Amino acid sequence: QVHLVESGGGLVQPGGSLRLSCIASGFTFSIYAMRWYRQAPGKERELVASISDSIMSSSRPLYYLDSVKGRFTISRDNAKNTIYLEMNSLTPEDTAVYYCARRSATGVDPDYWGQGTQVTVSS
Question: Which residue in 58, 45, 93 sits closest to 72, CA to CA?
Answer without folding.
Answer: 93
